[in-house]
Amino acid sequence: MDTAKIHPPFKLPSLGYDYSALEPALDARTMEIHYTKHHQGYVDKLNAAREKSSVIKETALEDLLGDIESVPEEIRASVRNNGGGHYNHSLFWQIMSPDGMREPSGALKEAMESVWGGFDSFREALAAAAASQFGSGWAWLVLKGGQLAVYSTPNQDNPLMRGDYPLLGLDVWEHAYYLKYQNRRPDYIAAWWSAVDWAKAGERYEKKAG
Questions:
Q1: Structural domains in the chain, sorted by start
Q2: What is the pTM of this model?
Q3: 172-204: per-residue pLDDT in tens?
């Protein structure tokens, strides 16, 4: 996802680790359902929308989402929801790892310190954005105008639709955590940090900011 855009026809990306690899933070059954049912569903519906319009048949997903208002109206909602779902989940799987670097380093760490004063303050900011997102949505660490920022988006919207570049996204749809955490979204958010691979987020930052 970092080296090339996501081009049609769209397909489920490789997860890169076992469903149980991120336990205890993310349980195996939730991971399996999330990946094979929810994410696959977004992919299938996005491909179906693509078949309805010759305008987008060869367009990369990032370009569609980055100019969502230019997508033909009859399929715009589907591209927004299902294309957003495909992109968001593809990034979500990628920035997690069972054996990744658990704190940022290098240029990303320095940028966090300049904005939030330190990693712990950044974590508080992202956790607050995730916990306060009403209903389904995502919390993001983004590059916005060359500077780091944190915010949330509803449903499957993402930073590309705002002209920003996502470095990391946290899924706070109930399907991401309900089997284990039920309505305890803050507990899920707190546990999720142990699955983040900051080396991958740092690579994204250096690629875009450098």
A1: 28-94 (1.10.287.990), 106-209 (3.55.40.20)
A2: 0.96
A3: 999 999 999 999 999 999 999 999 999 999 999
